[in-house]
Design a protein that fits this description.
Layout: H1 2-6, H2 17-27, E1 49-51, E2 95-97, H3 107-120, E3 123-125, E4 140-145, H4 161-170, E5 173-179, E6 190-192, H5 199-205, E7 213-215, H6 225-239, E8 243-248, H7 253-265, E9 271-275, H8 286-291, H9 296-309, E10 317-321, H10 327-336, E11 340-343, H11 345-350, H12 373-376, H13 381-405, E12 419-424, E13 427-430, H14 431-434, H15 446-459
Parallel strand pairs: 2-11, 3-4, 4-5, 5-8, 8-9, 9-10, 10-11
Antiparallel strand pairs: 1-12, 6-7, 12-13
Helix pairs in contact: 2-13, 3-13
Family: Belongs to the glutamate synthase family.
Domain Glutamate synthase: 93-408
Pfam families: Glu_synthase
Length: 474
């Protein structure tokens, strides 16, 4: 009754009915338009973002039946290029599937996401639970290394470099991501109870079957920023892959120390994934879900500014996570300096999640977040793969549409001057003033901007008007 009778279209959390409807319709290639104007109370909502379109600009949106076709939207930066990593690469998609482990999600869900990533030509983050056979259906991977070193540990639970190299050699791994914390449970470890530790999960994680699986709250391979960077460089040297970190944002001292050491020593991470404190897919104590770690925009902006003030922002690919699978949130993320976005819960919605809020109970009714075989059998990977691919492609297309409305060819070229934040019904503040950015912050380097414009205009022709009349002014 609360969902269908009492709540308004824009009231529910974590995702409103409007937001879920947009994801579902996009995933099914149905009509995802909305009629009769917005029902968001934007006139009286402080903090509401407004994207400012341009009347005349360099980029011209196409106006033709073909504008709904699929659009390739590669990253504006090359991950690992700044440090000469042998495996440096330009991600083919600015939208990628976020870290969700096999164990927290069902086998069928993981397979659907990986098949969908292959169809959408985007990256699939494994989560910290290792690489299972369900991750091997064509989607390229970011291998996440958590505190328990699942998939790259020895019999005693210690990190094993040889096993990591075997994993990298035996799967389509494009980058390594060291997980420091996540928005749902910053500073906490994790527990997968014994009944969930099946033979397949045990094999993927490198742990005993049928026993509680405990993730520590801290890494054993490093204990401060200096030793973290040593480990990053070791992993990069041994695998040749770009290496990054994922973290929620709390104390800024860590980020200042990291940026200072990167500037002063030449060691560094190739990418940084910032997770918002809005909750995410992980089950966690309510106090951590609700109040520990900064929400995405605030945490990301403070972190990005630390690197930009030290002249390091061009050397790092910034990835945003935290409800950025919705076009409006993603656009603000790109304006603040995101080069890529991760989608997690939105991808779950695309493969059937109904926001039942049962992720922590093993009774997910749609077979997404459960290890119950009877429930999971209802999720058919081939069907759901198409849906998650459709959703990713639709989100990319909408991001480009908005970018062109702002007069640029790519969402990474949207600046903080293109977004205002409403203060009251009669006043607003430019995004760069809200977060203390200078005008050059949030954008790729000039060289990267030129290259991404070239790439975008090579594959996506610009629009044009009807032929001008003889009396048109030059």
């Amino acid at each position: 009754m609360r969902q269908y009778i009492i709540a308004a279209n824009d009231e529910e959390r974590p995702f409103t009915r409007d937001q879920r409807r947009w994801v579902y319709a996009s995933a099914k290639k149905q009509n995802n338009y909305f009629g009769f104007g917005t029902d968001n109370d934007l006139e009286y909502t402080a903090g509401y973002p407004v994207i400012k379109h341009r009347t005349f600009a360099r980029a011209v949106p196409p106006s033709s039946p073909g504008t709904s076709r699929e659009i390739q939207v590669p990253c504006a930066k090359v991950i690992g290029a700044a440090r000469g990593r042998p495996g440096a690469f330009r991600p083919n998609s600015v939208v990628n599937i976020s870290a969700m482990s096999f164990g927290s999600l069902s086998a069928n869900a993981i397979e659907a996401l990986n098949r969908g990533a292959a169809l959408a030509d985007c990256l699939h983050n494994t989560g910290e639970g290792g690489i299972s056979r369900y991750h091997r259906h064509g989607g390229e991977l970011i291998f996440q290394i958590g505190t328990a070193y699942f998939g790259c540990r020895d019999a005693d639970g210690r990190f094993d470099l040889a096993k990591l190299k075997d994993v990298v050699a035996g799967a389509p791994v494009r980058a390594l991501e060291i997980k420091l914390s996540q928005g749902a449970k910053p500073t906490l470890g994790g527990l997968l109870p014994a009944p969930k530790v099946s033979a397949e999960i045990a094999a993927a994680r490198g742990i005993p079957e049928g026993r509680d699986c405990v993730s520590p709250s801290r890494h054993a391979e490093f204990s401060d920023v200096d030793s973290l960077l040593d480990w990053v460089e070791l992993l990069a040297a041994e695998t040749g892959l770009p290496v990054g970190i994922k973290s929620a944002v709390g104390d800024l001292e860590f980020w200042c120390d990291l940026a200072d050491l990167m500037r002063d020593t030449g060691r560094g991470v190739d990418f940084i994934s910032i997770d918002g404190g809005e909750g995410g897919t992980g089950a966690a104590p309510l106090i951590f879900t609700d109040t520990v770690s900064l929400p995405f925009q605030l945490g990301f902006a403070r972190t990005y500014r630390i690197f930009a003030e030290r002249g390091l922002h061009d050397d790092v690919v910034f990835i945003g996570a935290g409800k950025l699978g919705l076009p409006d949130n993603a656009i603000v993320g790109f304006a603040l300096g995101c080069d890529l976005v991760y989608v997690a819960r939105e991808a779950m919605l695309a493969i059937g999640c109904i926001q039942a809020l049962k992720c922590h109970t093993d009774t997910c009714p749609t077979g997404v977040a459960t290890q119950n075989a009877w429930l999971a059998r209802g999720l058919v990977p081939d069907v759901k793969a198409e849906r998650v691919a459709n959703y990713v492609k639709t989100l990319r297309r909408d991001l480009v549409k908005v970018a062109e409305a702002c007069g640029v060819e790519h969402p990474g070229l949207i600046s903080t001057e293109d977004v205002d934040i409403l203060d009251t019904r009669t006043d607003s503040t430019p995004l760069h003033e809200v977060y203390g950015y200078t005008p050059d912050m949030g954008l790729p380097s000039e060289a990267d901007r030129k290259e991404i414009v070239r790439l975008m205009t090579d594959v996506e022709p610009q629009g044009h008007s009807a032929p001008p009349s003889s009396s048109a002014v030059g």
